C-alpha cells in the first residue's frame, strides 16, 4: 500500500477511535471537566444529576455545622442540608488521607456515573454532586429513617417489627434484581458492598440501596467476571468470592 494511503488510513482510524472515546459515556472525563464555576439554580446537569458548587454546599449545611451532622463513614462525613430550592438532602463530604485520595476519587466518579443513570424506587436517588478543586461532595435524597442497621440493633431507634423487616427485605431484593437484570444501563451492575448500613429507609420504611462506590459494571454478555482484588466488607460478601476470585451475576 502506498505510503500516502497508509498515512491517510491511520489518521482516519485515530480520528474514529477518538470520536468513539468521546462518545462513550463510561469514559471518565479529564480533570478539567470537574472544575466548576459558581452558578444559580437551576444547576447544571451531568447525566441527569445537578452540578453544585462549594458555595452551595456550604450554604446548604450552614457551613457544615454540627447541628447538620448526621454521621461518618469510610468515605467521610454526612450532613443534612437544604438546597436553594428548599429541597431537603443528605450531603456526603469526602474526607480521606492523602494516601487514599486516588481511591476516593475513583469511588466518587463511579458513584456519579452509575447513580446518574439509574432510576428505581429501591435505589437511593443522586440529586447531584460537587467537584470543586480537591473538594468532593455527593448529594442524595434525604432518608428520614436513616439506615437499616440502626433499626435492627435499636441504636437510637426502636427495633423493627417483623412486617417492617419483611417489607425492607423485599424492597432491597427488588433493587438488587433491577441492578442485576441489565435493564438499568444495558449491562448488569454488581454492588459489591451490600450491607445493612447501605440500606436506607424512607419515612414509610421503603428500602433504598445506597453507596455505589465499589460497584462493578459486568462486561457485556458475561455472567462471570474474574477479579484481582476482593472488595467489600468482611462478614457481608459471599465467602466463595474470596476463594475463587470471581464475581457472579
Automatic annotation (TrEMBL):
Write out the catalysed reaction. Answer: L-seryl-[protein] + ATP = O-phospho-L-seryl-[protein] + ADP + H(+); L-threonyl-[protein] + ATP = O-phospho-L-threonyl-[protein] + ADP + H(+)
Tell me the InterPro entries matching this sequence: Kinase-like_dom_sf, Prot_kinase_dom, Protein_kinase_ATP_BS, Ser/Thr_kinase_AS
- Family to which the UniProt record says this protein belongs: Belongs to the protein kinase superfamily.
EC code: 2.7.11.1
Question: What name has this protein been given in UniProt?
Answer: non-specific serine/threonine protein kinase
Residues in Protein kinase domain copies = 64-249
Q: Which domain of life is it from?
A: Eukaryota
Binding sites annotated in the UniProt record for ATP: 93
- A GO MF label: protein serine/threonine kinase activity
Q: Which keywords does this chain's UniProt record carry?
A: ATP-binding, Kinase, Nucleotide-binding, Receptor, Serine/threonine-protein kinase, Transferase
Q: What class of enzyme is it?
A: transferase
Key word 4Fe-4S present: no
- The answer, when asked if Kinase is one of the entry's keywords, is yes
